[in-house]
Write a structure and sequence with these properties.
single chain, 634 residues, alpha+beta, 6-stranded antiparallel sheet, 23 helices
Amino acid sequence: MSDSIKHECGIAFIRLLKPLSFYQEKYGTSLYGLNKLYLLMEKQHNRGQDGAGIATIKLDIKPGNRYISRYRSMEKNAVQDIFSYVMKKFADVEKQNPELLSDPAWLKEHVSFTGEVLLGHLRYGTHGKNSIEACHPFLRQNNWMTRNLVIAGNFNMTNVDELLQQLYDLGQHPKERSDTVTVLEKIGHFLDDENQLLFDNFKREGYDNNEISQLIGNHLNVGKILQKSAKTWDGGYTIAGIFGHGDAFVLRDPAGIRPAYYYQDDEIVVAASERPALQTAFNIKIGQVKEIQPGHALIIKKDGTVTEEIFREPVEKKACSFERIYFSRGSDADIYKERKKLGQLLTARILDRVNHDLENTVFSYIPNTAEVAFYGLVEGLHDYNKNKQRDALIHSRNNLTNEELDRILKISPRVEKLAIKDVKMRTFITQDADRSDMVAHVYDTTYGLVRRDIDTIVALDDSIVRGTTLKQSILRIFDRLGPVKIIIVSSAPQIRYPDCYGIDMSRMGEFVAFDAAIQLLKERGMAHVIEGVYAKCLAQAHVPKEEVINHVKEIYAPFSPEEISAKIAAIITPKEISAKVEVIYQSLESLHDACPNHLGDWYFSGNYPTPGGNKVVNRAFMNWKEGNNDRAYL
């Protein structure tokens, strides 16, 4: 993606189902869980570079001993920083008394993070606080073991104000207005209720307090707690949590917006945001990894019982399509195929735009995440070329000369790497003009591959959000090569609407497609449409989210996708370049064809999977109209 955006966070969860001594005997280390947690987090480092955190819980610890450990970091290499901190504790043990490092019982009693339940989180901040307090896991602490709660997640709620009001109505006083706090306190409230209900029941039956503590841990109904907690959540979420005594869960929103995968055998239960991380860390086959179903929670009781239970009635699945286009690592077998198909499905439109002229067209891509889609495009080009060569040979078979044969066989797509992303440069220059000049050199190009005033450059990007990097850097460096035309191709459709489920795309004014539509409305004397949409959004500002309509669709309605693409090309073209610039976007139909199981396309279509999405998009438009730079949700 030429325009870098921050996006979904990542989770890593491990529950060891055997005593630590089992892993010491079988794998030669009591740190098996920590080692695997490190692997799971490293294999998902693409999901968060603003911070990370881990928490562990020790099972069956005697009162008076610490059983919850947590450490968070905002260092540049946060995962390495966390595990350096943790592993130093074991390095000190090895230095002072090496044989104790092979004694799991001693380690569990004396060294923090030696637990059976482990939770890791990688954070990508959106517009929230970028501080250590914003890093997961979050803790809700209590002297009653079964009332302690640890959570970490990949989520955004659209209705935080509503959820906060519910907490106020309960008499609570949350410490801040954020979706993380509301989720933590919601679950915590119903965890307290369940604890109190069980306590009262067992008390009436004549058990003493020490016995009751054990009984509560055995009888907590995790599914019921989650059902009550999530009843009014509106958003996309995968949330993992652990209760202090050892019960744990990983839950996924009813539309399956955010990804969640798990694997279990008789030794472990593990969950993560990405399937390849599980495959690599545990050396398992793709078929052994399961997807947590929408509206379901994977529940692991302290006794090791594992179930997948419904906590919210599933709705039509709208799994995030951007996961497939860009966010998730392309090492997933299905994602790799889908990205290739996204490129392949663009072949015909690109060939039409260059008049099927392979001899005078250079095909390239904008590194690094568009590479797999580019492979698909190249396959499509070669398929077209083979068919063209076959037809030419059949047509000329009766009078085919050696020269004509050589000419036919010589034609082949010219595939080159033109854009090179340099190591990130830093500048201490503060003047805007000078800084823009530095930004223009983030990318460089390969010289000598394009014939000046003859060739057309076709460059594939996986998506175009703002178009800033294209305008400030890529188009300028391509123009230095002297092409007659530059065609930028997006393997994703036009990004028209903000996200409210965890991606850093929340302001209307940052979308070049929106800018293009607004400019077209003004140029064609249709500015009244803008005012009309604003009035409709204002009228629905205080309507319940379930009744809100996405009125921003009316901004785009007068224009075809091709008209908007043409205007985008004009917007992103630097004034000083000589080449003509054109833009081609993926169609929604082709996106659905390539990614049939991930139809969450609200950024492109405006069809939000939850009612809160419509409220957010209208609020985002009003913010833009009023010159308010805030995001449209908490």
